[in-house]
Amino acid sequence: MAALLLIDDDPDLRCSLAITLTGNGHTVITAEHGLAGLRALAETPIDIVITDIIMPEMEGLETIRELRNRWPNLKIIAMSGAWATSRSYLDMAERFGANYSLAKPFETQDLLDLIDRASAASSQSR
């Protein structure tokens, strides 16, 4: 199973996703924004980062760009729930370096499937 860093400013979503992902065998570290996520990643090896796009302190696109610069092989899943503009934010996230994207709200299984894909891709590139 994967070591995940979950970055989202919504404490309820962050908590519920962490519980679900942990229940599915993953190790999960959480952060409330991009700066906290970068600090966590500098201290702990992570396989996959799951990040929201719209956040305070350091928003997701900036976070993705910094992640890609520091850890070029790290797998990144971007998620956004900015309603009508969600797809454009997610398209930008992929241009900034996210490997996968997911529009909120999403089914838990969709996220689990992306984590499986990212894990498989990560193990092939090692």
Binned strand content: 15-25%
Radius of gyration (Å): 13 Å
CATH superfamily: Response regulator
CATH domain fold name: Rossmann fold
The total of helices stands at 5
Mean pLDDT, nearest integer? 92
What is the count of distinct domains? 1
* Terminal residue distance: 16 Å
Give me the secondary-structure category.
Answer: alpha/beta
| Strand segment tally | 5
List keywords for this structure.
single chain; globular; 126 residues; 49% helix; five-stranded parallel sheet; 5 helices; Rossmann fold; 5 strands; alpha/beta
Structure notes:
It is a single chain. The chain has 126 residues and is an alpha/beta fold. The protein has a single domain (3-121), classed as Rossmann fold. The chain contains five helices and five strands, in the order E-H-E-H-E-H-E-H-E-H. The protein has helices spanning 11-23, 34-43, 60-70, 86-96, 108-124, and strands at residues 3-7, 27-31, 48-52, 75-80, 100-103. A five-stranded parallel sheet has the order 2-1-3-4-5, sandwiched between helices. Strand 4 (75-80), helix 4 (86-96) and strand 5 form a beta-alpha-beta unit. Helix 2 runs parallel beside helix 3. The chain is globular and about 30 Å long. The two termini are 16 Å apart. The model has no long low-confidence stretch (mean pLDDT 92).
Write the layout of secondary structure elements.
Elements: E1 3-7, H1 11-23, E2 27-31, H2 34-43, E3 48-52, H3 60-70, E4 75-80, H4 86-96, E5 100-103, H5 108-124
Parallel strand pairs: 1-2, 1-3, 3-4, 4-5
Helix pairs in contact: 2-3, 3-4
